[in-house]
Write a structure and sequence with these properties.
The protein is α/β, with parallel strands linked by helices. The chain has 9 helices and 16 strands. The longest helix has 14 residues, at about 90-100.
Length: about 260
């Protein structure tokens, strides 16, 4: 039994380049994932998104679980395998940093999304908050897997010793940055999921990883077979075993066929 980890954005799906919203997935790649699982293998999602953020176009596929928030949370068959949420004291400090730096930060967790600071005209689809009490109204458990900000706030981020010392920063898209706790990564969460499968009596053969951006690189470097999309960053391509076609041209389907999952 082999295990494959599939990134979502710009690997399985693409977004409207003008609005950033809306998702599509290649029918050929969806069929290839179905076939991969029919052959007795396990497919898992690997994403910076929240569990509730999986696009509707992927929900009919036989994924057994996912690692989300860039690896802060790992779920297998509906059960949490790993959780590394941002400490509450760091959430409180982040809320104080935002107005000081005049920037905007998205707080993302299993219970929803909240936004603090300046939106600069971008619609984050998240409740505006300014305090821990307001944040807890949106996320009662205060489980936050990641923070995120747009490219125009990167200079402000660079002015904050707090953000740079208390978080790892991934550039998950040309215009989008994500902050997670140090030690969090897709590679760490993937190892936990593989171990959980083996503990359940399901020996794992080889591991496959599909991705396109900086937050995928740790997993690409540790998987037995690493596949970078044709539209991937140069750094992701360097970390890959091989580069497939881009997301618009059935890259996932072509890679799975090349690897013998027909």
């Amino acid at each position: 039994m082999d295990v494959a980890f599939f990134d979502i954005d710009n690997t399985l799906t693409w977004r409207d380049p003008k609005t950033g919203w809306g998702n599509e997935a290649s029918p050929a790649s969806k069929h290839a994932i179905d076939r991969f699982c029919e052959l007795g293998n396990v497919a898992l999602l690997s994403t910076g998104r929240a569990p509730q953020g999986v696009p509707a176009c992927l929900k009919d596929l036989p994924f057994s679980g996912m690692l989300c928030f860039d690896g802060a949370l790992a779920i297998l068959d509906g059960r949490r395998i790993l959780a590394h949420f941002i400490p509450q004291e760091d959430l409180e400090r982040a809320l104080l940093e935002v107005p000081r730096l005049d920037m905007g930060i998205l707080f993302s967790g299993p219970e929803g999304r909240a936004f603090a600071g300046e939106r600069h005209g971008f619609e984050w689809h998240a409740e505006q908050v300014e305090s821990m009490d307001e944040l807890q109204q949106v996320m009662p458990s205060l489980e936050v897997g990641k923070l995120a900000f747009r490219y125009y706030d990167f200079p402000q981020y660079q002015k904050s010793s707090f953000f740079q010392t208390h978080f790892a920063c991934y550039q998950s898209a040309p215009d989008y940055f994500e902050l997670v706790c140090p030690g969090v990564g897709k590679d760490v969460a993937a190892r936990a999921l593989v171990q959980a499968l083996e503990d359940a009596g399901k020996p794992v053969g080889r591991t496959l990883a599909f991705g396109d951006s900086e937050n995928d690189i740790p997993l690409l470097r540790t998987a037995d077979v690493a596949v970078a999309m044709g539209n991937a960053s140069e750094e992701a391509k360097k970390a890959a075993t091989f580069v497939t076609d881009d997301v618009h041209h059935d890259g996932v389907a072509h890679a799975l066929a090349r690897l013998g999952y027909r």
